[in-house]
Amino acid sequence: MTWHVLGAGSLGGLWATRLARAGQPVRLILRDSSRLTAYRAAGGLSLIEDGQTHCYPIPGETAAASTPIRRLLLACKAYDAEAAVASLASRLLPNAELILLQNGLGSQATVAASVPHSRCILASSTEGAFRDGDFRVVFAGHGHTWLGDPLDATQPTWFEQLTSSGIPCEWTPDILSRLWRKLALNCAINPLSVLYDCRNGGLLEHPLEVATLCAELAALLQASGHAAAAIDLQADVQRVIRATAENYSSMQQDVSQRRRTEISYLLGQACAVAARYHTDVPHLDALQQRLRAHLTAHGLPSN
Ligand code: NAP
To answer: Residue with the nearest Cα to atom 18 of ligand 1?
Structure first.
């Protein structure tokens, strides 16, 4: 069974190279014919791990190819997910399985609604990777990936292919709780790290602001049916800030490298769900306004 991987970026590259290295059949789906030409000229996808570079000549194609897709790893950003899936929807077999690697929430529901005959498996990952050049992925942080399907708790038969390919992952019956917890951690840390333009550790100087956001996020999680994701949130946020004190958050890196952020799927999603559940989150709302204004002022998309 071929693993189609859409998105030859950081996370897609990390998954595709490990699957290919383990002998799994993998095909990469590139954005368009010019990206496919550039990919072929590069000779494959390179993984840089522990200072060693290995190039994997994984076959590439565009969404316009005609072969059917049974299993798709969707590894683009949340804001690209809907259009990316639409571009190859006609190739999906009726019982196709999609693994959605997007951070935050919102894009998964949109994608799932657009492919009602496919199974959508959601993922939440703490692995870290970045690109140091085109089709070159640096494995930057060991972590773990949780996968699950909110509509069907049955673990897929192929799941062991992931672990035997060296992808540390676990099937969970409560993936939504995992995604909400990560979203809450992101909302408490990332926007402030952008506005103060600091490493995560810089937030130790703003304990009250962080604590106020944590209280609103915990109330939102409880009101929206994700009480388990609210347990000890503030202590966990403090733990993450201390453990990653020297790191820049992904959103801070996006802004400093002038890339679009995933704000709409993180803080935007938290504020939208709060409005839906009539939960007052004045500090999260104000933070969202400040962040969107900051993005606009820096010439970046505010959505
Ligand atoms: P990334 O490095 O920017 O890679 C995204 C890739 O998707 C790019 O290669 C892009 O193509 C490709 N793409 C976008 N639209 C496409 C389309 N229609 N067809 C084909 N390819 C398309 O992003 P990432 O860091 O891997 O992040 C992916 C998701 O994983 C995000 O939601 C992120 O928050 C999440 N995540 C990332 C990490 C990490 O460490 N990187 C960790 C946890 C979660 P181009 O190269 O042509 O632009």
So the answer is: 84
Q: Which of 127, 148, 173 is the last residue of a domain?
A: 173
pTM passes above 0.90: yes
Dist. CA 75 → ligand 1 center (Å):
5
Closest residue CA from atom 9 of ligand 1: 9
Last residue of some domain: 158, 173, 188? 173
Question: 119-135 in b/e burial notation, b at 16+ Cβ within 10 A?
Answer: bbbbbbbebbbbeeeeb
- Catalytic site residue from 182, 210, 265, 287: 182
Residues 231 and 270 in one domain: yes
Name the nearest CA neighbour of 24 among 162, 170, 171, 169.
162
pLDDT in tens, 123-142: 999 999 999 999 999 999 89
User: Residue 129's domain is classified under what CATH number?
Assistant: 3.40.50.720
Verify whether residue 182 is a known catalytic residue.
yes
